[in-house]
Amino acid sequence: DGKRRRSYEHTAFTFLGYTFRARRSRNRHGRQFLSFDPAVSKDALKKMGREVRSWHLHTRSDLSFNELARRINPVVAGWLNYYGRFRPWELRS
After folding, report:
1. Please, are residues 53 and 59 in contact by the beta-carbon 8 Å criterion?
2. According to the model, what pLDDT value does residue 2 have?
3. pLDDT tens digits, residue range 24-75?
4. Exposure of 10 by Cβ count < 10 A (0-12 exposed, 13-18 middle, 19+ buried)?
5. Residue of 36, 40, 37, 22 whose CA lies nearest to 82
């Protein structure tokens, strides 16, 4: 956090798809401070991107938009519900 005076070897770790590290936050008075908070990890974002690319959506001309949405929406909604719990704006890159 922002009150540490020395530097440390480990400043972040990843657990269950979240990276915990120092991030800027605002207190109830609107002032910024450093806190140790989770957000979606870069590895999880890469894994989601690989999964979407593996669907080969550009080749699925046999399906209508409604059929594509019926297949995709549950997966994407699950990602948004899980990874969007903490700092949802970090899902948008």
Report:
1. no
2. 65
3. 899 999 999 988 899 999 999 999 999 999 999 999 999 999 999 999 999 9
4. exposed
5. 40
Return the amino acid letter for 53. Answer: R
Output the CA angle 64-52-65, nearest 5 degrees. 10
CA distance 84 to 69: 20
Phi, psi of 16 (to 5 degrees): 55, 40
CA distance 31 to 7: 24
pLDDT digits (tens, 9 = 90+) for 66-76: 999 999 999 99
How deeply is 93 buried, as exposed, middle or buried, from its count of CB atoms within 10 A (0-12, 13-18, 19+)?
exposed
Query: What CA–CA distance (Å, rounded) separates 63 from 37?
Result: 41
